[in-house]
């Protein structure tokens, strides 16, 4: 299982997760599920946090429940929901390693390695400004590029056409609804 921490001893707690890497676009929230199990007669309350906190600029770390309460000394454990929020402006594309950290206040510290992957896509064009005469058409070449392994489907459309006196139906793409390549996917736009 991904993200499993091996521990020694019988009276203790440990972390595990089935998904140690979660990918989101800037402005979205990465949701992790961390299983917190107990061994033997372990009966402490474990304070949970992200380390570093926050994992990177523009992010926030929320954990429920917190702390993980094992003071009854019974039961198999619990599952914590870790939500890492990102900011559409200040959180940059990249991979950010951080730890799901546990501290029971009795020198029993544990860390589970996680990764926040922030990815996105970009759209660029080197086609110069063109003048379109009534009844004629022009083509533009745009490049749609996956940033940091973005794997979502991109749907293209022409915006603000009505205000310019065009019909949206007069905008056509050589391909649409595709997953862009890391080296860039070229699309011809015909107006």
Helical content stands at under 10%
- Main beta sheet, described? 5 strands, mixed
Q: How many helices?
A: 0
Shape: rod-shaped
**Strand-and-helix sequence, N→C?**
EEEEEEEEEEEEE
What's this model, at a glance?
The chain is built from no helices and 13 strands. The chain has 191 residues and is an all-beta fold. A five-stranded mixed β-sheet has the order 2-9-8-4-6, with no helix packed on it. Strands 1-3-7-5 form a four-stranded antiparallel β-sheet, with no helix packed on it. Strands 10-11-13-12 form a four-stranded antiparallel β-sheet, with no helix packed on it.
Lay out the secondary structure:
Layout: E1 13-16, E2 21-24, E3 29-38, E4 45-51, E5 60-64, E6 68-69, E7 77-85, E8 94-103, E9 109-118, E10 120-125, E11 139-147, E12 172-173, E13 185-190
Overview of this protein structure:
It is a single chain. This protein is 0% helix and 44% strand. It is mainly β.
Can you tag this structure with a few keywords?
191 residues, five-stranded mixed beta sheet, single chain, 0% helix, four-stranded antiparallel beta sheet
